[in-house]
Predict the structure of SRPBCC family protein.
Amino acid sequence: MNLTATTMVDAPPQALFDLLNDPDRLAALTEALTLEADGDDRWQASATFQGREETAQLDRVAAETPERIAYVATARGLELTATAQIGAEGAGSALGVDLSLVSRSMKGKMMLQGLKLAQPQLEKGLGRLLDRLAREASAA
């Protein structure tokens, strides 16, 4: 399952990249997510999802300043790859985000089927998250 969203950000590409490259600042954009460092490019993530506490391993797998950054989260048979592409647009930036969810087990396949039913709500949530991210980057 893939989700994509784009937005314009009133901040230069490097400022946006710096925000996306700082997992603590990213986690602060949502009240439901906490991160604990587990190495230079690895974190243990905890989040409330559908009323349940979930944990995941989060790895930064690409950081190409200031154009691209990617993270992979794995939990309960699901793998989520989040990739952000950043481009200069006037005095600001164009941001494109692609989320890819893949099942890695039978349990993951069952969870993914449920998530597919909620895809419209997930897309709206991604849009709201990008709006918060744009406001945060613009304020920095």
Q: What stands out?
A: Strands lie at 2-9, 33-37, 42-49, 52-64, 68-75, 78-89, 92-103.
